[in-house]
Write a structure and sequence with these properties.
Layout: H1 18-39, H2 44-61, E1 76-79, H3 85-95, H4 135-149, E2 155-160, H5 167-178, E3 184-190, E4 193-194, E5 197-198, H6 199-202, H7 208-214, E6 218-223, H8 227-237, E7 245-250, H9 273-282
Parallel strand pairs: 1-2, 2-3, 3-7, 6-7
Antiparallel strand pairs: 4-5
Length: 287
């Protein structure tokens, strides 16, 4: 794997190609499966659908400092769908916020990597999340604060499509438009599966694009596993002058492992040892 010096992350729009991003994402997916299987708990399916977007944010787009997580000039990332934190923990470790070995502490009672992000335990976590619908409100607050302070830092937030059934998501969306938060970019991880089944059957959020447009957002729809499309959408969001941006990313739950893809049962269930070996082989690991 290619390694990066901490200075690499101090500017935005870094020179990194899609092949490299794809290779990093493959390692992150392996981490997700190992972490959750070691703990025999967690949410691997949604973490794997979110992986390519989180990798692109941290390796290509966001300005951040692994050696100084509270660097004032950093861009912020809020994982509103906090249960998919294994993907974020892997990326934070691989960009240098803490050693890779700590990933195996996931969900340990006294460990720093809890089952949902904890800002008091884990370097690089902006705010504790897990109660669905709360993270996007915090992201809106951060964006307002940065505007008031004159900062050019941006706030990126990922929400889930099942999470979008929460009324607080729409209250936050209304506020973001009202305050012209063009420094806020929200990505909807649209894998269309939640713990009880397909989103459109449990409580449909569709047509999602039209809803956010009606709330006054700049809206884009992309393939959330196409790194070129992800990069281009994040770049186009920079051009918005008065509106917050919503990127609706069509994704696949369990992406990368054939028997996990588009299966709601892997929302919150870890792989047993035999299936872990099979999954890692699919991802290219020599067992």
């Amino acid at each position: 794997m290619v390694s990066f010096e901490p200075e690499f992350f101090l500017k935005r729009n870094r020179d990194i190609d899609e092949v490299t991003l794809r290779a990093i994402a493959r390692e992150v997916r392996k981490d997700i499966l190992k972490m959750t299987s070691n703990a025999q708990s967690g949410h691997p399916g949604g973490a794997m659908s979110a992986t390519d977007i989180i990798v692109t944010l941290y390796y290509y787009k966001m300005r951040h400092n692994p050696l100084n997580p509270k660097w004032e000039e950093r861009d912020r990332f809020v994982l509103s769908k906090g249960h998919v934190c294994p993907a974020l923990y892997s990326v934070l470790a691989r960009t240098g916020y803490f050693p890779l070995e700590k990933l195996m502490e996931f969900r340990k009672v006294d460990g720093d990597l809890q089952g949902h992000p904890d800002m008091h335990k884990t370097p690089g976590i902006e705010i504790s999340t897990g109660s669905l619908g709360h993270g996007i409100g915090a992201a809106v607050g951060m964006a307002i604060g940065l505007k008031l302070s004159g900062s050019d830092s941006k706030v990126y937030c990922m929400i889930g499509d099942g999470e979008a059934q929460e009324g607080s998501v729409w209250e936050a969306s209304m506020a973001a438009s009202h305050y012209n938060l063009n420094n806020l970019v929200v990505i909807l991880d649209n894998n269309n599966l939640q713990i009880d089944g397909p989103v459109d059957e449990v409580m449909s959020i569709y047509p999602a694009a039209e809803k956010w447009k009606a709330f006054g957002w700049n809206v884009m729809e992309i393939n959330g596993h196409d790194f070129k499309e992800i990069k281009e959408a994040l770049d186009r969001a920079d051009e918005s002058k008065f509106k917050p941006t919503m990127i609706i990313a069509k994704t696949v739950k369990g992406k990368g492992v054939s028997f996990m893809e588009n299966r709601a049962e892997w929302h919150g269930k870890a792989l047993p040892p035999d299936l872990l070996k099979e999954a890692l082989k699919e991802l290219g690991e020599i067992i």
